Amino acid sequence: MNSRPNTTEPNSTETIEPTGLDSIAPTMRAAVARRYGNADVVAIENVPTPQAGKGQVLIRVEASSLNALDWHFLTGTPYFLRLIAGLRRPKRIVRGADVAGTVVAVGADATSLHIGDRVFGESAGGGCAPYLATKAEYLVPIPEGVSFQAAGATPVAGITALQGLRTHGGTRPGDHVLINGAAGGVGTFAVQIAKALGAEVTAVCSTRNVGMVERLGADHVVDYTTDDFVPGSARFDVMLDNVGNRSAADCISVLRPAGRYVAVSGPKENRWLGPIGHLVRTRFAFRRTDATFHQFTASSTPEDLMFLGELLASGQVVPEIQRSVGLDGVADALAEIGSGHARAKIVVIPT
Ligand SMILES: NC(=O)c1ccc[n+]([C@@H]2O[C@H](COP(=O)([O-])OP(=O)(O)OC[C@H]3O[C@@H](n4cnc5c(N)ncnc54)[C@H](OP(=O)(O)O)[C@@H]3O)[C@@H](O)[C@H]2O)c1
Fold this sequence. Notes:
By secondary structure, this protein is of the alpha/beta class. 25% of the residues lie in helices and 25% in strands. The strands form three sheets. Strands 3, 4, 5, 6, 7, 14 and 15 form a seven-stranded mixed β-sheet that branches. A six-stranded parallel β-sheet has the order 10-9-8-11-12-13, with helices on both faces. A two-stranded antiparallel sheet has the order 1-2. The radius of gyration is 20 Å and the shape is globular. It has helices at residues 68-75, 82-85, 148-152, 155-168, 185-196, 210-215, 248-254, 276-286, 302-314, 330-338; strands at 27-33, 42-48, 56-65, 98-106, 118-122, 131-135, 139-141, 176-180, 200-205, 220-223, 236-241, 255-263, 292-295, 321-325, 345-348. Residues 6-19 have low confidence and may be disordered. NADP nicotinamide-adenine-dinucleotide phosphate binds at residues 1-2, 67-69, 156-157, 160, 180-181, 183-187, 204-206, 209, 224, 242-243, 245, 264-265, 296-298, 337, 340-343.
């Protein structure tokens, strides 16, 4: 799970009068969840329009997108997550961490951004609404030529894929990278980013997604419904694991001697601790090998966001958007993500 930027709710107390581009109504429609549960707790409500507090900007949200992360925050599972998300009910009610939009007001000390700037980044929720107030330091400019939809689809999944492959996996040109779970949000970015880093890519997905993953640039595709990457002869320098459905022995067996196993996810059966037990056992098993185990919680940085922006601008990465929905489509989109078989990205246009 990502460590989330800390932003305030719409009715932030430390506010200043925005001098913005828009004439902004005091309330706005938003996709909210006031209690933990499945997609049926998501409702469209009128909530106070946020204002830019100290160090914050107010952005008019042009596009957001949904991630597995949003499902975890919706359901409040695994339960340890509630220590930060709110013990009895969610502290933040407006869904959506990814955001791309236009700065319409600037709070005190938010000197890095200006009214009219096109920006994207990750906030601690609030994306599924027409306006979001968030710290300026969490946002970077959208490069020229990159659409709001592409930028809004990128932050959480793109940062996770980039940090998994580059920061933790140490992916270098010529490495052979195995991406388990190549068809979801993280996976579709990972296939493209691994290619941009100069790697040979083997992608694992189900039958219906084979064509998509090939089109994104995978050199080899393993359809896990009919085939298995473990008994094969291919050996990998990096295994980026977005699923966590294989034993430690399986993962070790497919890695080259100095290979790196990067755990993005793990089994979700344990509602209290999620994948923690599985990850601890896997880490322990790797101590007896030359290959290394890496587990991480993605954390958005301006440098990584700007690097992703360059990949978007150069066309090396084109977010795979399966569909765009309005606020009324947020609940169904979250249910699809909760099924564990969402395809690529679902973008939210908050109208
Ligand atoms: N560590 C972190 O900081 C971090 C950050 C972001 C996400 N995550 C976690 O990483 C995981 C992936 O995130 P996401 O946003 O990509 O999720 P997602 O968009 O919901 O995608 C899940 C994907 O998993 C694939 N999948 C399911 N079972 C599979 C199997 N047995 N073998 C191969 N692929 C399988 C599905 O493809 P098919 O339909 O083809 O089966 C689906 O496309 C989630 O568990 C999320 O919680 C962790």
